[in-house]
Design a protein that fits this description.
The complex is a heterodimer of chains A (about 110) and B (about 550).
Chain A (H helix, E strand, L loop, with lengths): L1 H19 L4 H22 L23 H32 L12
Chain B lengths: L10 H14 L6 H26 L12 E4 L10 E4 L1 H21 L10 H17 L3 H19 L5 H32 L4 H7 L8 H19 L6 H9 L2 H7 L2 H15 L13 H21 L3 H22 L2 H29 L4 H4 L30 H17 L5 H13 L7 H30 L11 H19 L1 H16 L1 H9 L10
Antiparallel strand pairs in B: 1-2
Helix pairs in contact in B: 1-2, 1-4, 2-3, 3-4, 3-10, 3-14, 3-19, 4-5, 5-6, 6-8, 6-9, 7-21, 8-11, 9-13, 10-14, 11-13, 12-13, 12-18, 13-14, 13-18, 14-16, 14-17, 14-19, 14-20, 16-18, 16-19, 17-18
Classes of the chains: A mainly alpha (about 110), B mainly alpha (about 550).
Chain lengths: ~110, ~550
């Protein structure tokens, strides 16, 4: 499981970074989205990987070893919401920039005509 | 601390947040109402900051050691719940933010809040985010407040629309989203190494981190630090800054002067709390990086000031110079240097805020034809534009001798920014240099920092004088710029604040020194968070 997760994070980060440095605004947005998926998986991995372990402790004294760490899961939820909102905002700015400059280049003008 | 005073700590976040939500409910056409409500809110924030100052200093005792105050959100005990901590440093930053915010908002009322919809909502949201970042005692909560202030700043950069702003903000948003991802990676790695995100708890646990996990911890802290360094505009991660700030509307740019300082504040807080002398294997691991990166930023900013052709670019590069000075001084460390850098931080923030406000009236008659495209057709259908079509006549009465007022203010700003006597800029720089001469053996990096501080002051003087001659001395054919009292008053207020810094330098320095000593002593901070009183229980 560790190797699968590590590979997934690595591939997502690599593709995200490659797209982030592309000249088209839409590619930049896709790159940022892929990067944020990779980061979310990474945060989850920071809380140690467990299978079949619930994050919520029931009533009474419980053995913490039986449960998954709930904090990274809460962090991931927050991070997902925030990155979703900022990506949506960036999409709007992208459309506005496309409308004002007439090109989808990140600098607002084509570099080599 | 009892009764309602206990809840005062959360007020600088809750008040602007609630009011900005409330203002959304009102139509854009009820402009007077919106202006009055948001001005009253920001004025109340100044009052709250003063009261918090009274609280954390035990009744304005400038030199008395007093404990920080912690506030448990949701009444969960630390470190399980989220805490807010008000100590001398954070209250100082709160006061600075609210004063700068008040003047910028006052200035915006002259005409800038009309050039786009929902200005006041975004402005208050930005203040809520900044205040939250200064108050929080939890790294992940810091991330949330950073996102709040960034989201509001995205909207404010776009305020007024136009091609330049849209394309500058496209870069600004992309860079900041990428930076936020770095922030998250750093937080996750620190959590993996220590198992906590509460700053006080981290300070206790970091010395006990086993040596095999130190690499993860240091890597996480370095990535986290990079995120803050991007925000504070360190070279070579600062190329976005001067363009974005130059594109933003003047009152927005004036408020943004505090945003780089948020990054500086966090770095100061984390280096003193988490990586101080008592932190075992990670003590001071980033100090030399901070010094050299700060020096490089200063050199870059100085060259930028000399090569800039517009005033707003000069101001942007000046922000870089001041960030570099602060970071290098943080890297060198020590009580005396920290006290001096805090004074410099306050003085330079106020001065550059005033410069951003003065730029637009000074340049108004020069680039009259360039100013008109600011008011463009709406990008989206729902944007309210009715106000933009109104005539400009209500901008205000023409004051005779506007040039004299602007010129005086400009000279004042120049003296402040370049650090010439007798104003507070000089005192700040003199204090930093004096503190660097403090130790018996002066290191070569200290000499280098002193040299660059002096050179950057000279470059600022040259750059601003050149721009001032261009804009104010060259006889203009057309009439002098029209200036309303609403625009002059906030500039005067900021400059008066700098004057007050100069006149009361003694007591203010005493405060800064106590703050620096309190920063060096982390046990008081940890103690305050550990034993924060829960509601319904008697406090300690």
């Amino acid at each position: 499981m560790e190797i699968v997760l590590a590979l997934a994070i690595g591939i997502l980060t690599a593709s995200g970074l490659w797209l982030l440095f592309r000249p088209r605004t839409f590619q930049v947005i896709l790159g940022l989205s892929l990067l944020s998926y990779a980061v979310n998986l990474f945060i989850l991995a920071a809380g140690r990987l467990r299978t079949d372990a619930p994050p919520i402790v029931g009533k009474g004294a419980a053995d913490p070893a039986l449960y998954a760490d709930p904090v990274p899961q809460a962090l991931v939820l927050t991070a997902i919401v925030i990155s979703f909102a900022t990506t949506a905002l960036l999409l709007v700015v992208l459309l506005a920039s496309r409308g004002l400059t007439g090109t989808d280049h990140v600098d607002g003008e084509e570099s080599d005509p | 601390m009892s009764g309602w005073m206990q809840h005062l700590i959360v007020a600088p976040i809750l008040l602007p947040l609630a009011v900005s939500g409330l203002l959304l409910a009102f139509d854009e056409r009820r402009r007077t109402l919106k202006r009055l409500v948001s001005l009253a809110t920001v004025a109340a924030l100044v009052g709250i900051a003063v009261m918090l100052l009274w609280l954390v200093t035990d009744g304005f005792g400038l030199d008395a050691a007093s404990a920080p105050r912690a506030y448990l959100l949701g009444n969960w005990p630390a470190p399980f719940g989220i805490v807010l901590v008000a100590d001398r440093l954070s209250v100082l930053m709160l006061l600075l933010t609210s004063v700068l915010g008040f003047t910028a908002l006052f200035y915006a009322i002259a005409r800038w809040d009309r050039s786009g919809p929902r200005f006041h909502v975004l402005f208050l949201l930005l203040l809520a985010g900044i205040n939250g970042a200064f108050l929080t005692g939890d790294i992940f909560n810091l991330f949330v407040f950073f996102e709040v202030l960034l989201a509001a700043s995205y909207g404010l950069v776009l305020h007024g629309s136009g091609i330049e702003r849209t394309s500058a903000s496209l870069h600004y948003i992309a860079i900041n989203i990428a930076t936020s991802l770095l922030f998250l990676i750093g937080v996750a790695m620190i959590y993996a190494a220590t198992g906590t995100l509460n700053m006080a708890d981290l300070a206790e646990r970091i010395p006990e981190v086993p040596s095999e996990d130190l690499a993860i911890l240091q890597g996480g802290a370095a990535i986290l630090g990079t995120a803050f360094l991007v925000k504070s505009g360190i070279w070579p991660l600062s190329f976005w800054l001067s363009r974005t700030y130059a594109a933003a509307a003047p009152p927005v740019a004036a408020l943004f002067a505090i945003m780089t300082k948020v990054g500086i504040y966090v770095i100061l807080r984390l280096t003193s709390l988490l990586f101080g002398n008592a932190s075992g294997g990670v003590a001071g691991f980033a100090d030399s990086w901070l010094i050299w990166a700060g020096l490089a930023t200063m050199v870059y900013g100085t060259i930028g000031i000399l090569s800039a052709r517009t005033l707003s670019r000069i101001a942007g590069h000046y922000i870089l110079v001041s960030s570099g000075t602060l970071l290098a001084a943080i890297g060198i460390g020590g009580h005396a240097v920290t006290a001096a850098l805090l004074f410099y931080l306050v003085s330079s923030t106020l001065a550059v805020g005033a410069l951003y406000l003065i730029i637009e009236p000074v340049g108004r008659n020069v680039e009259e034809e360039d100013k008109t495209p600011r008011i463009l057709e709406p990008v989206f259908d729902d944007e309210y534009t009715g106000a933009l079509e109104e005539d400009e006549d209500e901008t205000g009465i023409v004051i005779p001798g506007t040039i004299a007022i602007l010129g005086g203010g400009f000279i004042f700003c120049t003296l402040l920014l370049s650090g010439l006597p007798p104003l507070s800029g000089f005192i700040a720089k003199f204090a930093i240099i004096d503190a660097l001469f403090g130790p018996a053996v002066i290191t070569p990096t200290s000499w280098l920092l002193i040299a660059i501080i002096i050179c950057s002051g000279l470059a600022t003087l040259i750059g601003l004088t050149r721009a001032g001659i261009d804009l104010l001395w060259t006889p203009a054919e057309d009439s002098p710029p029209r200036l309303s009292v609403i625009e002059v008053a906030p500039i005067g207020l900021l400059l008066a604040a700098c004057l007050a810094l100069m006149v009361c330098a003694g007591p203010i320095f005493l405060y800064m020194e106590t703050t620096a000593v309190a920063l060096g002593d982390r046990s008081a901070y940890i103690e305050a968070v550990r034993h924060a009183p829960r509601a319904g229980e008697a406090g300690p």
